[in-house]
Amino acid sequence: MIPFANTYARLPERFYARLNPTPVARPRLIKLNIALAEQLGLDPDDLTADVLAGNHVPEGAEPMALAYAGHQFGNFVPRLGDGRANLLGEVGGRDIQLKGAGRTPFSRGGDGRAALGPVLREYLIAEAMHAFGIPTTRALAAVATGETVVRETGLPGAIVTRVAASHIRVGTFQYFAARQDTDGVRTLADYAMARHYPGVTGYRAFLEAVIARQAALIARWLLVGFIHGVMNTDNCSIAGETIDYGPCAFMDAYDPATVFSSIDQQGRYAYGNQARIAAWNLARLAETLLPLLDDDDNKAVEIAQQCLAGFAKTFEAAYFGGLRRKIGLSSVRDGDDALTQDLLKAMAQNQADFTLTFRGLGEAETRDLFTDPTAYDAWEARWRQRLAFEVETPEARRAAMRAVNPAFIPRNHLVEAALNAAIERDDFAPFEELLAVVTQPFDDQSGFARYAAPPTASERVHQTFCGT
Ligand code: AMP
Ligand code: MG
Question: What is the pLDDT of residues 375-430, one digit of tens each?
Fold first, then answer.
């Protein structure tokens, strides 16, 4: 028995549409995350391909598609909602959702399905993010549907089981605000506070807390070179988790202008824009909360602005603090931020690999990652001078650095190769091996050196696709 709770189903009926997943032709289990299942207190035997494909609705589930709105690339869409996702219920306080489970009242023109490639990408990247210690939705399972989904071509269909703190997004608040449904906004805020911010009282403190979590989250992304790719307000979680892995990707060579998503032609969601965009999304959240912040409109706007001003402070503390740790500093001195920024600048000018540079700081071969190795030498000399003020032993510093600088990230060329093997040859071995490597990202794993290496010129992936 799956011990479902259904707190979202107790919210007003206008928050969702109740419906079952649409059964698929031939469910086949591709991958089950047994460690996560056990963490949730689930018996893996209950997680059959039929359940994970939506063919069998387990006892206690109250399946539904959630209503939400959202700004997509800056344009407001008042009605998005789960067009292909089905929330079965909650286990251990976390949502269990089937993504790719068929059409819903929110599907608009879509088929309600997901293709195998994006399902495996979500699985890999979510689990890698978790292994980095970054708040994220998890992947509990992937199943093949035995059906073909039509995108540009026919592709094998699949469903990912997503586990999330919840699926409440900035766009969920926008859905009710756009309908002048202040009661809906209040009910949602009360629910989100109780579920995600139990210590927080009052709507102002709630807004501040959401802002703080998002600011800390984006800092964590930047510190591992992650690019979400579709930071629309409907992909911005109120709980502060990374959610909705579409055309997301990790940067190889450091360049803040990096964009992979084929649909992000203006670079709105480029690596270096992510903090600014998160702040913009949170301003949209603040707007929806105005009626709750104060009866006086001007006063409410003032409060919202004060809350939003907190973003930069939290973000900068998390980002610069994280960078200091990445270069092995345990104390704070004037000039530290300039030191980290100058390293990034040298990396950008010399196409240095982001992950390997930090992992290899102080090692002889690291200079070779820079097109002009003397740019690294100059920086390293300054760094060594700074390290002289540290009280930690070199061994302790090395261990601390290795715990924050991963050796392995899910590099695009490896992700693509793993996905292609699965799609084209029904061969899941590369997926399994990549998953195993990137979920132990801080270990050296000497047998897997090729997974640490940046792509060669011909291996380089320039674009990723959301595949919807
Ligand atoms: P996403 O790009 O996954 O964040 O989705 C954005 C919106 O489009 C959400 O409302 C999704 O439910 C919807 N959507 C994406 N793909 C599909 C699909 N294949 N069928 C129906 N709706 C979809
Ligand atoms: Mg989405």
Answer: 999 999 999 999 999 999 999 999 999 999 999 999 999 999 999 999 999 999 99
For the CA of 104, the nearest atom of ligand 1: 21
Radius of gyration of the chain (CA): 23
With CA atoms as reference, report the closest residue to 137 among 244, 46, 214, 226: 244
Ligand 1 atom at shortest distance from the alpha carbon of 112: 20
Closest residue by Cα to atom 7, ligand 1, is 80
Task: Report d(CA 88, CA 260) in Å as an integer.
Answer: 32
Provide the 8-state DSSP code for 154.
E
User: Minimum-distance ligand to the CA of 107?
Assistant: 1
Asked whether the beta carbons of 123 and 142 are under 8 A apart, the reply is: yes
For the chain, count helices (H), then strands (E).
15, 12
**For ligand 1, is residue 264 a contact (CB within 6 Å)?**
no
3-state secondary structure of 88: strand
Cite the DSSP H helix spans in 165-296.
170-177, 182-196, 203-224, 274-293
Going by C-alpha positions, the residue among 412, 416, 407 that lies closest to residue 437 is: 407
Residue nearest atom 23 in ligand 1 by C-alpha distance: 83
Q: Which ligand is nearest to the CA of 86?
A: 1
- Å from CA of 466 to ligand 1 middle: 10
Catalytic residue, chosen from 95, 234, 252, 255, is 234
> Running DSSP on this structure, what letter comes out for residue 335?
T
The model scores a pTM over 0.90: yes
234 is annotated as an active-site residue: yes
d(CA 123, CA 342): 35
